[in-house]
Amino acid sequence: MKKKLNEIRCTFCSVSQNEALARSIVTGFLLSLDPDVDELADIRCAVSEAVTNCIVHAYRQTSGDIRLSMTYYSDRTLKITVADNGCGIADLAKARTPLFTTAPDEDRCGMGFSIMESFSDKMTVISHVGHGTKITMIRRLSPSDKFPPT
Q1: Least crowded by CB within 10 Å, which of 67, 108, 116, 118?
Q2: Three-state SS sequence of 65-132
Q3: Among 49, 85, 117, 139, the one annotated catalytic
Q4: Which one of 18, 53, 117, 139 is the catalytic residue?
Q5: Cα 22 to chain center, whole Å?
Q6: Dist. CA 47–CA 42, nearest whole Å
Q7: Phi and psi of 68, rounded to 5°?
Q8: Is 108 among the residues known to form the active site?
Q9: Mapping DSSP to helix (H, G, I), strand (E, B) and coil, where does residue 143 land?
């Protein structure tokens, strides 16, 4: 049975400058876990996409809170959750379709969910119109000499 070894939770405003903050938080949390360079880049990118979705889509023309949490388990599994209390997603299947965007006039490519999913071992999205969206990504880190398998 896997055991929770570490966890971080933070809340920040849905302003574009906080995309970089989210990447920095993820980096700080992950560096002590000895990820390889590709894992670090993948996870930073996935979190950046999730946070961008909150800023651009969930809180369109307004602002609100974005909640980021990361939990690290003894089997080197990382659980990352990005959640908002924004507008929610009416048609989740359509939103997860590659190249679909609700902001085509803003030069958006509609690949956010595809990118997040490609960098995760498993991804779930729960959304309720008028109440927000929660994205959970699971990623198992590769073995490390610093952290032998338990």
Answers
A1: 118
A2: EEEEEEEEECCCEEEEEEEECCCCCCCHHHHCCCCCCCCHHHCCCCCHHHHHHHCCCEEEEEEECCCE
A3: 49
A4: 53
A5: 9
A6: 9
A7: -120, 130
A8: yes
A9: coil
**What's the order of all strands across the beta sheet hosting 4-13?**
4-13, 65-73, 77-84, 132-140, 122-128
Confidence check: pLDDT of 105 > 90 = no
Catalytic: which of 67, 96, 108, 140? 108
CB contact at 8 A, 104 and 56? no
Predicted TM-score (pTM) of the model is 0.87
Residue 110 CB-density burial (10 A; 0-12 exposed, 13-18 middle, 19+ buried): middle
CA distances from 93 to 36, 79, 97, 126 (A): 32, 23, 7, 11
27, 40 Cβ separation under 8 angstroms: yes
CA-to-CA distance for 128 and 126, rounded, in angstroms? 7
Share the mean pLDDT of the chain.
87
Sorted by sequence, the CB contacts under 8 Å of residue 137 that are 6+ apart come out as 46, 50, 79, 80, 81, 116, 119, 120, 122, 123
Burial classification of residue 96, based on how many CB atoms lie within 10 Å of its CB (0-12 exposed, 13-18 middle, 19 or more buried): middle
Strand, helix or coil for residue 11:
strand
Residue 49 catalytic?
yes
